[in-house]
Amino acid sequence: MENLFLVFIALPLVVGGAVLIGAWLLTRIMPGDGKAVAAEASAKVAVAARGPRYDELATERKKGNRVGYMMLVVLVILTVAEIVVALALNSVALLFIVNILEAAAIMVVFMHVKSVWSSKEAH
Amino acid sequence: MAAGTDTLHSAYQQQTRTNRLGFWLFFLSEVFIFGGLLVARFFLWGGTRPDLPQIPPLILTSALLMSSYFMFRAEMAIATDDRKTFTRSLLMTALLGSVFFLGVVFVEWGFTVENGQLVLGNHIKPTDGVYGAVFYGMTGLHALHVISGVIGILLVWNLGRKGHFSAERHWGVEATAIYWHYVDLVWVFFYPALYLIGTAVAHGH
Fold first, then answer.
1. Predicted TM-score (pTM) of this structure
2. From the list B20, B58, B81, which residue is nearest A15 (CB)?
3. What is the C-alpha to C-alpha distance for residues B179 and B177, in angstroms, rounded to an integer?
4. How confident is the prediction along chain B (205 residues), in pLDDT tens digits per residue?
5. CA triplet B50, B56, B60: central angle to 5 degrees?
6. CA B94, CA B79: separation in Å to the nearest integer?
7. Of A93, B39, B99, B133, which residue has the fewest beta carbons closer than 10 angstroms?
């Protein structure tokens, strides 16, 4: 029972946490919003150079990044839930529901399924 | 001049809409392929599964989830004209995708190099009855999609590096991103089917 807890509940939580921390660290070492504070001064100078849509695009970018983080958190939570449901609760039906939720989230947010009916770009 | 630009933009939008619809139809056909493999798994394995190590697939799943996040980030970046984040996020996606692929080949399949030759190693082999056949069929077809996705991402990265895409025109990026997320979506179903559902039994028969 201890092993079951360790492998299927504690480990996914540790790995899930590591994924989130890893993603956060990776975004910190990459340019973009990660270095937003340090780059604030030069960004103000760049506004004039980048044209009138700069503010609009910057807002869109921030919004998009937030959505991306939230999706990553949701996917990690659902994956952990998947493991717990399958191995601790041993329920295939419940697991199928979690799978469907995960797939729906990916299709709507990442794959922009709604844009199939749209003539615009995905964003 | 402005009217000409508008006409071109409208034509591009129309083309993008057609491309998108065609791409989703392609995914529909892929659903039948992967769905067939899932049906085979439940038909042949039933309420059992091969007794495989749990930690490596969990790590590989994490890598694939993170790669999906970076792909989304790349797509958002090009849509907002942030080219540095775009190219670097694409490289991160390709790197994590490669980690997944190599993990499947060298950890899940257990390939090792012996006397300069690539040989199948430890746990489960394609000849291990229904367990081996289904396991290698499912992971193999998925890995094929992963590696083709990585190649696509690297092609888009190269084009993006040369300034091929813009905030207004980036269908190539969108298509590659959708494909990559589709690969992730397939794994969402394959991972529990291969490693979580059913009672673990010794394979090799």
1. 0.80
2. B58
3. 5
4. 556 666 766 777 788 888 888 999 999 999 999 999 999 999 999 889 998 888 899 999 999 999 999 999 999 999 988 899 999 999 999 999 999 999 998 888 887 777 777 777 667 888 888 999 999 999 999 999 999 999 999 999 999 999 899 888 889 999 999 999 999 999 999 999 999 998 888 876 5
5. 115
6. 19
7. A93
Enter the DSSP assignment of A117. Answer: G
Looking at beta carbons, which residues of chain A come within 8 Å of B81?
Answer: 50, 53, 57
Are A68 and B76 within 8 A, CB to CB? yes
Report the interhelical angle of A54-83 vs A40-50 (nearest 10°): 120
Judged on CB neighbours under 10 Å (0-12, 13-18, 19+), B68 is buried
Residue type, B103: G
Provide the β-strand partners of residue B50: B201
| Distance between CA atoms of residues A100 and A115, nearest Å | 20
Whether the CB-CB separation of A31 and B76 falls below 8 Å is answered with: no
Nearest to B175 by CA among B149, B198, B202: B149
Q: Provide the CA B39 distance to its chain's centre, in angstroms.
A: 20
Residues B134 and B141 sit within 8 Å (Cβ to Cβ): no
